[in-house]
């Protein structure tokens, strides 16, 4: 077990960072809020040219046969650039669910970046608790049913649904949850984009009204594994985001002068940034460990993911809030990118379970029940 | 009440009755003009300029009697800079002619005002303004860039601080002006904020010519005048106590009550922590008001904005987490200039983002903590390198 | 309703402050930890000479006929001096219970300072919740029973029991709780002093084994009122304590130099003290309101007490912790009085309900139930 | 492992085997002496002084092989100042003769050491020490007061910083000495702490005569030598990663598990917050250790003490609230000098009070934040007025 970055991981990081520097500078990202942006080309480059869409897919299915550790590095860079790409929704959530459910039909196309998928669950869904829970649901409650006439039901706030070619849908069947796929252009499917606090991870409400679908396999474990991997890896996005905020703020306070001094020479600012730096360092360790336990299939993965989410979510929000505050007025403007990070950090805090949810869940996992 | 005071009270009531008898309360502008002429606009201002030279406490009686009669009053939300900042500054530092020119249309709302103080390089450190005003005969030529100007698009006039002497230390080289917002060379550009709206503007001043009549106070006295203006702002921000569970906390409490399905038990303690802090803060405002009424103004006033910002930010952040999917949504990203800013209005996302400005606008929380530490607690001041050397030699 | 201090209150404050300055300087208080101190003379002077023991007792019963507001001012000074006197236990808790239960026999002696009483409940007992509670007990659970052979049972951590002449005991009777008094020298009564974190409010475990007692009256409301008044007024002790810590720390950081500068000139210290000052100011308002609602019998008293305890408990601990930290090494020594305040503040945080308890209770009172 | 490295490894193993073959592990002092003479005490020290001049990483192999054989080792808790601070300083700055005189009995534990650095007026600002050392022929006469000296009552020797020249700026006028704790004029007084115990002492030095042989480093070089000593302390405090849920959090977790009656639901979220932070901190230590092993030491090491202090204080404060009546009790207020300090031992009250020292001893949290901000984050240093003027002219 190592919490460091391998050379391969650093190499992967460099390519992703270069791509984002070229193709999605903050000004371009901000256009997402005015509905004027199309980032599908960026995603094609990332997914296809750099091959990151298939990172966690085995080579036998056309993937890179890498692991959650490498996916975590990509997410760090996504967080760093607040990049509007459906990596988490397609290459982590949907892909993990399909892998777990035994799919072989769709994964090669996802891995190659030809097609993009989304797991039809609300982005706020946290991983269900394994074992007898005292808090939080033990199972994912499916909002969609399968009948003779096709799928019916409604799932709100689905990340990446509007950009997806295929929806991967947890469906309540007679033998429990099953996983089905639905083509984006299937009849009876309505996908309505949502005006969101964070427009860099687009959300949509999805309605099924007699929609044809194809069965992949059993869904219970598939959804649980997907949400667990998603929560574990989202922590790395939060770390990347927090690190950008810290570095950008440090650079600014070294340069900005008020009262004839760099504002970074004021001790109150220095102490706050020292504390924040400590937090970001600890978040890095927690996120790396979460990714590593997923990669190794370690039995500690549930605890590691809960710790990482509970810790990193708040660190990212803290870093983004300090970034806005310490930039003063300029941090409140649309022109400065800080707001993109603030919105993403705040939305990430809710994504895949709030820190409150993860702490409650962790209480069950480590035998510290709430009551 | 002493017999002198009884005389004053009776005299004021008679004036109010006369005003109401002679003027139609339905014609707002005319009525406000008549109220000004009757010396009832601000009784502590000089006679002839909307006042009677009385202590300010008498204003409350006038307001009460006019309100009872259903008389119009100037909406403070419509001309806040004019009424709250420009008027007292003009009253204190203006010449007779300046008071005559500016105060009446300010009072009636015919002329709206805005503020040209902050600059990209001069935020907390207002005395660092770089906008230059150079004398040219009987005029001044102004060049520079101002920012965070609310209402600039509607304002006829502005209060302006500019540098008139770069060769002296920075506080000594400033002069205070009234700026004509319709003069050639004044360009107003909306400044979009993180909420999507443009509450504020940038104002670019290019060879703007102002007559020397528009100078308020002596040349080089700008810092003193501006400080008086800002003290008026701080008193305004201190704010009055409100009823229990109002503002931001009311939104969260309502969400908790109306949506049992949102209640994550782990969030309850934090909800109650916030409720308790808001209530303690409210009681502090009540107590401050009582101290003021007893003639013992407490220094806690300067801390109320600090506390307000911290609470607004914590509560609005908590609300997003509580609301779940609703917290992930936003109502409108359209860029527009709002007529009215209600920081607890709109959705949770707006509240969260807008509250971020509370600890920046009108004095950052960092500056307020310095002020409390130094002026209230008597702790030694920060080391300053910028007070004694000429402005032009300061590193920037 | 006023949250200010009246002239009478300020006058009372001056006398109490002078007495403590004369008779219980910090060095003398510290002796309580080595078991070497007898503060009964101090209490006699305070209770009798200054007449504060009977502040809330009506004149008809030999008291001063003042109110909880004046008692709160005395408690501010007690907190300021960490004075080891049984004012809260005798003149507030026991006295309020006796008043509510209709006592006329004992109160004149308590009011005059001739005798001292203690309410036999654990110091950690919070006020019960009125109305249908979802958290916390609606009734005080009595640990003592009354039978033919006298009282039996055990009450732990009773404040002021060792110094009391009389114990006021909530007893489980057939018709609910009743209030009985027991003489300190009654047979079958064992009072065992406890080694406590805060030795300036001595605690003792009390055991009844066939102990004779006298009935005063019904106990349910008496105990509830006493705990409510106690919680409301303890907040003033916490304010006085916090204010001493703030003032002492301010004086120290203005004088102490490190690196050639007063440490109070460092901005991080300045900002922390500005925040603390704000907290102490807000605590003052909350505590004054709690005392005022008790004094006026206002129906808002339960909410006011919960707010005051939830807020002031943590402010006092914060102030005492900052006092130790900002004094550096000297604050860690026995010789400096800071530790007396730290221990009292921490014990006060638990006394009459923790802030967690009061927040939970407040949720019921203001219709914000936990679940 | 390269072939050179294989040779070193084999050579060390042979030395260890020879040591074990020739000396009885049951006779602790004699064995430790023999281990020193064999160069196996600290392999990175020079030959003849307990070392072999090898890189420090080889020490681990020696420790492992000796531990396997059940050999005695010097208890670091028994002579921490000697082993952790004095020894590396003597190795770096001592003369041949000084190394010969001091290192062997230090290693075997015959001579225990203590530290005479802090003074009532020189805590965080160590360079402000006022203890004077005046040269008198071939000796020095020392006068002053030191504080926070643990183990002074048992120590034979001490490391001492004293002022030898008050006419130069404060960092330049210091000299580093070894102090003989048995010399006339050395008086040790136990210093009682808020826990009731006296872990530390005050040490009064009155006309204490030290031979010039006891001077470590040049006259006026004391600050440089002391800085090296303190860096060794900081490395020691950084600490090794431990297993999950150990130390202070284990106490609280156990109380929660063993006492369901204490579980106030409102406290659960805070309990888990603390658990999460402790675990994140533990993982950070694991990661730091891995970075160190990979030859990429991370700067987070300097922050671990800061994080440790904050967590220890928060957790121990929480534990008191959780324990209720047990939190109100204390185990023992008797003044005594403890043999061994276990900060998570004894009861919750002791843990709470002792933890308050964590953010003061060995560098306050305020100083550590300065260090991180300036040395790690590259933020501008604090304004210093004391670096350029003679020590005697500084305000005190």
Q: What features would you highlight for this structure?
A:
heterotetramer, A: alpha+beta, Butyryl-Coa Dehydrogenase, subunit A, domain 1, Butyryl-CoA Dehydrogenase, subunit A, domain 3, 3 domains, two-stranded antiparallel sheet, 10 strands, globular, B: 396 residues, four-stranded mixed sheet, four-stranded antiparallel sheet, 11 helices, 42% helix
List the helices and strands and how they pair.
The complex is a heterotetramer, with 2 copies of chain A (371 residues) and 2 copies of chain B (396 residues).
Chain A: H1 7-23, H2 26-30, H3 40-49, H4 68-80, H5 87-101, H6 107-112, E1 117-119, E2 144-147, E3 150-159, E4 166-173, E5 176-183, E6 189-193, E7 203-211, E8 214-218, H7 220-255, E9 257-258, E10 261-262, H8 267-295, H9 301-326, H10 338-350, H11 355-365
Parallel strand pairs in A: 1-4, 2-4
Antiparallel strand pairs in A: 2-3, 3-7, 4-5, 5-8, 6-7, 9-10
Chain B: H1 3-22, H2 28-37, H3 59-68, H4 80-93, H5 96-108, E1 113-116, E2 132-136, E3 139-150, E4 157-163, E5 174-180, E6 186-191, E7 200-211, E8 215-216, H6 222-238, H7 248-258, H8 265-293, H9 301-323, H10 348-355, H11 365-376
Parallel strand pairs in B: 1-4
Antiparallel strand pairs in B: 2-3, 3-7, 4-5, 5-8, 6-7
């Amino acid at each position: 077990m190592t919490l460091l970055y391998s050379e391969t991981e650093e190499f992967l990081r460099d390519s992703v960072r270069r791509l984002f520097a070229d193709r999605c500078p903050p000004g371009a990202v901000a256009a997402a809020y005015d509905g004027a942006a199309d980032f599908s080309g960026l995603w094609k480059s990332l997914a296809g040219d750099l091959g990151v869409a298939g990172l966690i897919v085995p080579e036998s299915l056309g993937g890179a046969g890498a692991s959650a550790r490498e996916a975590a590095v990509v997410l760090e860079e996504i967080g760093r650039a607040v990049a509007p790409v459906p990596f988490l929704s397609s290459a982590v959530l949907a892909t993990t669910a399909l892998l777990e459910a035994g799919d072989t039909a769709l994964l090669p196309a996802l891995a190659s970046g030809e097609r993009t998928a989304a797991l039809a669950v609300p982005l706020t869904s946290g991983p269900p608790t394994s074992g007898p829970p005292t808090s939080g649901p033990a199972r994912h409650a499916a909002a969609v049913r399968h009948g003779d006439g096709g799928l019916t039901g409604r799932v709100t706030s689905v990340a990446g649904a509007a950009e997806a070619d295929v929806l991967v849908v947890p469906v309540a069947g007679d033998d429990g949850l099953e996983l089905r796929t639905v083509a984006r252009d299937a009849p009876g499917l309505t996908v309505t984009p949502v005006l969101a606090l964070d427009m860099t991870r687009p959300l949509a409400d999805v309605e099924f009204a007699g929609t044809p679908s194809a069965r992949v396999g059993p869904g219970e474990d598939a959804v649980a594994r997907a949400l667990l991997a998603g929560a574990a890896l989202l922590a790395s996005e939060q770390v990347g985001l927090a690190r950008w905020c810290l570095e950008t703020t440090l650079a600014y306070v070294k340069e900005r002068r008020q009262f004839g001094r760099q504002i970074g020479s004021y001790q109150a600012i220095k102490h706050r940034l020292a504390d924040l730096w400590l937090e970001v360092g600890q978040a890095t360790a927690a996120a790396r460990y979460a990714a590593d336990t997923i990669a190794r299939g370690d039995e500690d993965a549930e605890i590691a993911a809960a710790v990482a989410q509970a810790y990193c979510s708040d660190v990212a929000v803290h870093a983004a809030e300090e970034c806005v505050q310490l930039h003063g007025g300029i941090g409140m403007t649309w022109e400065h990118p800080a707001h993109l990070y603030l919105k993403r950090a705040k939305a990430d805090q809710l994504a895949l379970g709030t820190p409150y949810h993860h702490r409650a869940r962790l209480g069950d996992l480590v035998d510290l029940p709430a009551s | 009440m002493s017999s002198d005071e009884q005389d004053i009270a009776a005299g004021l009531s008679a004036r109010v009755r006369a005003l109401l008898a002679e003027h139609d309360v339905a014609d707002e502008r005319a009525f406000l003009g008549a109220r000004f002429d009757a010396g009832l606009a601000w009784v502590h201002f000089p006679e002839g300029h909307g006042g009677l030279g009385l202590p300010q406490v008498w204003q409350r009686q006038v307001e009460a009697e006019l309100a009872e009669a259903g008389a119009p009053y100037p909406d403070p939300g419509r001309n806040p800079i004019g009424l709250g900042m420009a008027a007292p500054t003009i009253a204190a530092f203006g010449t007779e002619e300046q008071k005559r020119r500016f105060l009446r249309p300010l009072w009636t709302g015919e002329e709206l005002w805005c503020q040209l103080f902050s600059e990209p390089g001069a935020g907390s450190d207002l005395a660092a303004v770089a906008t230059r005003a150079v004398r040219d005969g009987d005029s001044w030529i102004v060049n520079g860039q101002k920012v965070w100007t609310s209402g600039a698009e509607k304002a006829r006039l502005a209060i302006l601080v500019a540098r008139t002497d770069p060769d002296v230390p920075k506080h000594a080289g400033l002069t205070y002006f009234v700026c004509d917002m319709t003069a050639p060379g004044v360009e107003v550009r909306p400044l979009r904020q993180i909420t999507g709206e443009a509450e504020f503007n940038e104002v670019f001043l290019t060879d703007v010519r102002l007559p020397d009549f528009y100078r308020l106070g002596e040349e080089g006295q700008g810092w003193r005048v501006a400080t008086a203006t800002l003290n008026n702002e701080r008193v305004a921000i201190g704010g009055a106590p409100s009823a229990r569970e109002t503002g931001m906390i009311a939104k969260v409490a309502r969400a908790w009550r109306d949506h049992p399905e949102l209640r994550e038990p782990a969030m309850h303690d934090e909800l109650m922590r916030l409720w308790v802090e808001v209530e303690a803060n409210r009681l502090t405002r009540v107590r401050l008001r009582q101290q003021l009424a007893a003639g013992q103004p407490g220094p806690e006033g300067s801390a109320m904005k600090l506390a307000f910002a911290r609470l607004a930010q914590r509560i609005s952040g908590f609300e997003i987490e509580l609301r779940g999917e609703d917290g992930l949504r936003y109502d409108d990203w359209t860029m527009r200039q709002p007529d009215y800013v209600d920081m607890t209005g709109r959705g949770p996302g707006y509240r969260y983002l807008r509250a971020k400005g509370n600890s920046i606008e009108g004095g950052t929380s960092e500056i307020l903590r310095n002020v409390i530490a130094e002026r209230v607690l008597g702790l030694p001041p920060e080391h300053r390198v910028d007070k004694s050397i000429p402005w032009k030699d300061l590193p920037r």
